[in-house]
Amino acid sequence: MIRVQSEDFDLGVELKTLTEGNKAIGGLCSFVGLVRDMADNENISAMTLEHYPGMTEKALTKIEAEANERWDLDGTLIIHRYGRLEPGDQIVLVAAASAHREAAFEACHFLIDWLKTKAPFWKLEDTQSGGKWVDARDSDEAATRRWLNPKSEPDAAE
Amino acid sequence: MKVLYFAWVRETTGKSEEDIAKPDGVSTVRDLVEFLKRRNSAYRQAFADDKMVRVAVNQEYVDLQHVISDDDEVAFFPPVTGG
Question: What does the alpha-carbon distance between residue B64 and residue A3 come to, in Å, rounded to a whole number?
Fold first, then answer.
């Protein structure tokens, strides 16, 4: 399930909905990305997320499908906000549920790493010296290389 | 063709979107970029560095060699920074 929205989300409510009724789930992993108040040694007062309506949904759906192909999952969720956010605000939630923890941990990590270089969002920071577009990071690109060789199924004996 | 611009590419060209009839002699994305750069200095500035602009056609990532058609939606934007 993927959602692109301006509204905030409640982690507890979302995770409960994700696992509702599926008693085969043994492990649930989640990651929340938040707006920090500092970037490159400058205070930021706000961050505006621009996105490409239509393509963002397509890209996130693909990322989710990729995770489900690589791991045996019982549920996945991506919620990504857009619009004006302030330090401390939640930006993104990714979650993965599986019978065993290894798949849940790995898929969750994969979802955020993959999203960071493939989902069409752009961040504009409100800094002390004016509006500044965030540059894509080499470290984010490097993080995706961790996932280049599809993982085999987690050990059933877990 | 509908051409969309996002983030600083949008700020530099001064447009978020425009409709362009596919010009004669333009067959790839690279051709389209060269065509746009010939328009004015704002476009030349936006496309000054190939490595800093990504392209999607009909909402799928493509490279500069991709062949475009008249009813395509072409989007130009910086490397993404979501998450």
Answer: 30
